[in-house]
Design brief:
It contains 15 helices and eight strands. By secondary structure, it is α/β, with parallel strands linked by helices. The two termini are 37 Å apart. The relative contact order is 0.11.
């Protein structure tokens, strides 16, 4: 196990009607906020817009609203929000939505504290030093953005999609009731994303990490069981509560202490979703199986352990590659049970420009991706080809 320091400053407020406390939570920080949110019609359909506004009004909190945020959120909206914050001297941001909304708000919070463009942080031209405080109300359990500093933004000019670690939210409100009306395709995409956050941490070259191995397996088994139940049986508070909390735990960095993450599948998938506007969950369901097939000979004992302990595959002790083959098939069957694609050909992408995506993923060969197996451009090309 590696040395580590773990500190997570985000306050979690979990449960029924907790979104009604938002005004009380913001009041110690500000009397004026930028309210970054889902479209008003979506919030009214969920039934939370009026109650949030009421809570803000009751606590004397003025607000400027910013919406129009799309999946695979764009840098242009970050620039717009940062300009508002600077012009209006905004001291606090409230984000209400899923990963795209919260990630946009995180980037705004950082960009509002600097003279440079936000993308200069991503490219390493300037360091991220501070952010405006941020609070969130999560409407879509998936990304875990509510309890981490991770932020993924797409640059409009070239559709380059990049992640960066910024500041954690000050508080996050998680009310499973808010997710009651999510459509099935969004549930499925979120379940795959939660699962992937645990998978990307599981595959490590660091030894003696048994405790976090068991915690990761628990997170994956929970989202497999209850994510499937939610998808097939519909909303149930306790079911969604388990999925929502697993989403948070899977990506709040507590499950990767003492070990080195991989995250190659995320980084490779980002190029697909950035270029072709594929959902994040779909990019993962097509890339993860191909990545596993490509790296299966690196540490077959760990990969076999993954499938035995997570999907309950019978272990062939004499032939771990047989265990892995059946395990990958079981994982793909899980994705298919959620009506998620497992091949690029099953998506709306046509004429996938694999060399372009692979070169962009490695910045034309300047960097590598992954840690479990370090991947160069030619490796990533083969993973894309294996996903066709």
């Amino acid at each position: 196990m590696n040395n580590f320091v773990f500190h997570n400053p985000t306050k979690i407020i979990f449960g029924k009607d907790t979104h009604l406390e938002v005004g009380k939570e913001i009041k110690p920080y500000a009397d004026k906020i930028l309210f970054v949110r889902l479209a008003k019609a979506s919030m009214e359909r969920i039934g939370i817009y009026d109650s949030i506004i009421k809570s803000l009004d009751e606590h004397g909190i003025a607000y400027i609203e910013l919406d129009g945020i799309q999946p695979n959120p764009r840098l242009s909206k970050v620039r717009e929000g940062a300009e508002i914050c600077k012009r209006e001297n905004i001291p606090f941001i409230l984000a209400v939505g899923g990963g795209s909304v919260v990630d946009t708000a995180k980037a705004i919070a950082a960009a509002a504290c600097m003279d440079n463009d936000y993308w200069d942080i991503v490219e390493g031209k300037v360091k991220h030093e501070k952010s405006i405080p941020l609070g969130t109300i999560i409407t879509y359990p998936a990304t875990g953005t509510e309890m981490n500093g991770s932020c993924v933004i797409t640059r409009d000019e070239d559709l380059s999609k990049r992640g960066f670690i910024l500041s954690n939210p000050t508080f996050s409100i998680l009310n499973p009731e808010i997710a009651k009306s999510l459509p099935k395709n969004r549930i499925a995409q979120g379940v795959v994303d939660i699962f992937a956050h645990a998978v990307e941490r599981y595959f490590t070259n660091v030894s003696s990490v048994d405790l976090t191995d068991r915690m990761l397996e628990g997170a994956m088994k929970t989202v497999i069981r209850f994510g499937s139940k939610w998808y097939h049986d519909g909303y149930d508070y306790d079911t969604v509560a388990q999925v929502m909390w697993t989403a948070t735990i899977a990506h709040n960095f507590s499950l990767c202490v003492g070990r080195v993450n991989d995250f190659a599948s995320h980084q490779i998938g980002h190029e697909l979703s950035g270029e072709y506007d594929l959902s994040h969950g779909e990019s993962l369901s097509v890339i993860m199986p191909s990545w596993m097939r490509y790296v299966r000979h690196h540490d077959p004992a760990r990969m076999a352990q993954f499938f035995v302990n997570t999907f309950h595959i019978e272990n062939n002790f004499f032939d771990p590659q047989d265990t892995i083959t059946r395990g990958i098939q079981a994982m793909e069957a899980f994705f298919q049970s959620l009506d998620m694609p497992i091949r690029i050909s099953e998506t709306d992408i046509v004429n996938c420009d694999i060399p372009k995506l692979a070169n962009r993923a490695t910045q034309s060969g300047k960097i590598t991706r992954g840690n479990f197996v370090v991947l160069k451009t030619e490796d990533i090309i083969k993973i894309y080809e294996g996903a066709l």
